[in-house]
Every structure is written in structure tokens, then in C-alpha cells.
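REQUEST ID: PR-0412
SUBMITTED BY: lab tech R.K.
PRIORITY: routine
TASK: structure prediction, single protein chain
INPUT:
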Amino acid sequence: MKNKILRKVICSFALALILAAVFSVSAFATPDTLPADIASTNESLITVRAPETTTISTTNSKLAISAVAAPGTVVTVYRYDVATNLFYKVMLEDEPLESVVGSSWLFASQVDLQTGLNQFIVRGAIDDENFTISRFDVNLLNEGFMDRIKGVISVIFN
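STATUS: complete
OUTPUT:
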């Protein structure tokens, strides 16, 4: 009888330890919006690899975004809204463009661009207080604009 009780106590204790270990991982929610003047609190959590520069122009309506970060870093992509002066999470199929970096140390995704200026923030965070902000601007040019530029260039060089 004592052995059964002792086994139950040990099993209950082991289960409690396992549950404590599983649920002790601190989870945090990334903000849905960020102010336009947000700054990093930790400069070394994420390195954006693509786009390669902070300002680009393109005629491609899709933009690849990639970054390198330590495993466990939460990477979230935000787009600027001029009307509210805030950055909002980019949504893909009703889900935020957000991921926890795994053992590969890589984050990669793509976003749809809107004609004109698109301003983005990629935020890498390990908790609510430690995050890196990486900004870049992408100007989506329409095909007609590019055709006019090609015409001007051909006139100049012909």
C-alpha cells in the first residue's frame, strides 16, 4: 500500500516538474503597432540580409525579406501607414508575418508591395524589452514610369 502511494507521489511530482519546465518558457506578444520613431533597445539581435540596402526602387510587386538571428528570436515584419503615422504588422492570409527563428538562424519571407513608397520595419525580439529595429524603404515603380525612363535613356544615348 505504501509503495502505491509512494509511486503516485513520485509520478505526480515528476509530472509537476515536466509541466513546470514546459510552461516556464516565457512567452510574449509582439505589439500589433509600432510608433514611427521607435528605436532599438539592443542593436545585435537581427541582421537583415535582403533587401541589401535601406532604400531601393523596383518594378517587382513582390519583395523578398531575409534576416539572420539567434534561435528563439521572434521576427516580425511591419508596414508603415501614413494616415496613422504607425507601423502595422504585415498580414498574410489573416496571420501576421511573424516567426520564431529556429536552429538554422534564418528568417525568410516575402511581402506584396503597393505602388509608390513602402516603408517597412523588421523587428527581432527576445522579449518585450530587448529588440532590434531594422528599417528599409521600397519604392514600387509602375511599368509606365519605367517605359518613360527607358525612352529618355534611348534618346540620350542614340
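NOTES: The longest strand covers residues 116-125.
REVIEWED BY: pending
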